[in-house]
Amino acid sequence: MKYSVIIRNRNEEKYIGHCIQSIVDFLGGGKIGQDIRDRLQIVLMDNESTDNSIRVVNTFDYLNIEYLTIGKNLYSPGRSLNMGINKCDGDITMIISAHCEIIKFGGVVVDDLNDIGAIWGKQIPIWDGKKVTPRYLWSNFGDERKVNYWSDSENRYFFHNAFSVFNTEHLKTYLFDERLSGKEDRYWANDQIEKGYDIVYNPNLVVKHYYTINSATWKGVG
Q1: pLDDT digit string (tens) for 79-96?
Q2: Quick check: pTM over 0.70?
Q3: Which are the contacts of 217, defined by CB distance < 8 A and separation ≥ 6?
Q4: Which spans in the chain are helix H?
Q5: Residue 102, Ramachandran bin (φ over 0: left; ψ between -120 and 50: alpha; else beta)
Q6: Strand, coil or helix: what is 130?
Q7: 3-state DSSP: the chain helix, strand, coil percent, rounded to 5?
């Protein structure tokens, strides 16, 4: 089985190395060599970073990494993701934000993704090293498995793609809406459920989601 991992990045030099190392540890077996290149593809979707994040990524020269850049004039969350999705050649595709670090991966196999739209995992919010009370958006990341989880605060089915897993062919069939400026994941999930595909929350998949000043996820939190 091969994983493709799309990392969304803009000026994430502080955390992107932790993100990639966690991918290597949990999906690549932590081993360096040709085997990991055959089993793990990383697609870096960079939104014109001006910091040292690309230099950090280049230190992982033993990995199979494809670099894609999307300019500010073309950027939307959906368009950026779709560009990365179209480059994926693994059996399973993971989407992860560059400021997320995997700390638990309960195991996902291809059969788990048959007849469902996506699996999304638990995110633990970390503010400058400190775990914060999971209020607001973070209150949706509980400890119980949920199928088609309804968020009362958003009045719709909830799904967050900053740490999410898909059958690659399914994802290529149902891409994200490129016209949206945000919440493309919620609209995608609600459309999937209308089409008859389940969206599954798995609390055995866990990341630390680190605070970054420009992250839309953290707006209004503090």
Answers
A1: 999 999 999 999 999 999
A2: yes
A3: 97, 137, 160, 162, 209
A4: 16-27, 34-39, 53-58, 77-85, 168-173, 184-194
A5: beta
A6: strand
A7: 30, 30, 40
